[in-house]
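Quick question, first post here. What does this chain look like in 3D?
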Amino acid sequence: MFIGIIDGIINVFNIYTIFFILIGTIIGIIIGAIPGLGSCVGIALLLPVTFFMDPATGLCMLGAIYGGTVYGGSISAILLCTPGTSASVATSWDGYPMTEKGLGGEALGIATFSSYLGGTFGSLCLLLIAPPLAAFAIKFGPPERFMLAIFGLSVIISVSSKSLLKGLIAGSFGLFLSSIGLDPITGNLRFTFNILYLYEGIPLVPALVGLFSVSQAFDIIGQEKKQTALGNIQKKIKGSVIPTLEDFKKIKNTIIHSSVIGTIIGIIPGAGTSIGAFVGYSEAKRISKNPEDFGKGSIEGVAGAEAANNAVVGGSLVPLLTLGIPGNAASAVFLGGLLIHGLIPGPDLFTKHATITYTLMISLLVANFAMLIFGIVWAKTFAKVANVTSNILAPLIIVFSSIGSYSIRGNIFDIFIMFIFSLLGYFMKKTDFPRAPILLALILGPIAERELIRTIVIFGGNIFGIFIRPIFVVLILLTILSLTYPLFIQKSKIGNIKQKH
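> Answer (accepted):
Ran it through. Tokens below.
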């Protein structure tokens, strides 16, 4: 581990890698500040670009984009009361009231420093927790890896939609799509309809870009962009964005509590930055000496939400890198970034590819520091991108997505795949079907099929022997729990509504 950290530090601190970390951070902040985009769109949009970089640098850039988008959403939330991402909704509850009082600069400063400290804490936890967990993952055989893939898919299905049925439909459809191509045992073609380009299955990057980037562009086409009087807002931003020592004393405990909460929520598969922000905000209010100020412009409210949602970033990569289980939809897209560089989550990332993995983890610390500097210097400027009109934004997304999808294989068919999946993603978004299960099924489906076949070959007729393996049984129970838990929550909500009436 120590040698891996040293190698990671050496790799990160070269001009080439630092440059792309800085670029990724800036792009992430800009994308995060534009309402309606967010981490999934940001990572998906730039994913094809990283294909032409070495794996370590490409992943560093994606990690910087991931963290930057989470922070960037707070800028438009504070100055425009228009959260750039769902993770910044809680930030707007106290951030915008501060702006209305002429304290927008102070609110930006609190958000920037809280985001930096929360993100740094989450990244440090990733660095400390992931290697031991990866060592434990070595005990996983084919049955456990098969069940782990099913568990990861079940988690995304259960939490990414208000309806468990819709999540199951999306996941099942994704598994069907993952079966297209050559059968791994017989070599027979499945569902290719004699289309040569489908012999290797659905190409991951065009499908990913279509589902999350181009579908979002279709969604914003025709929307009337709410123009805000930035000139009036800028007049309300007075003073320095660097918090005073007195402010730090007020928010110190809040940042510590929310950073721990955000990291834990990030590690829990299926949770995400939005949940982290809401829980962090609620906890900040609970421990505050002045809870009555929340919702009226409390710096503790801004600090609690921002420290928590940025800490989720590092936490969400713990189960992803070690077990291949995405903590949220954004880390599911990030998983696609690992796979296009030939990196399979699990113990190999910390043995064969240890240098790349530790470079990524160290780069998150650098990206958080870069985010702090950019936030202090350019936060007010970044807010202006929130007013980019739809007729400019949507075509740019479509053009860059098309270029990225085509460039990886140089195949025009990939652009058709991208547009097919963009239409699918647009339809799913409009009908409240979750898109993350389809992406994850495309990734985990082949893995689950391969490990299932290996399990059958190894155990032969004694297939019930796998049920005496403790890890396998635990994963089955966790899968059942992840699918049934939403039903219990829904039932309890219905019961509470009936009691009120």
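The chain has 19 helices and two strands.
The first strand starts at residue 181 and ends at 182.
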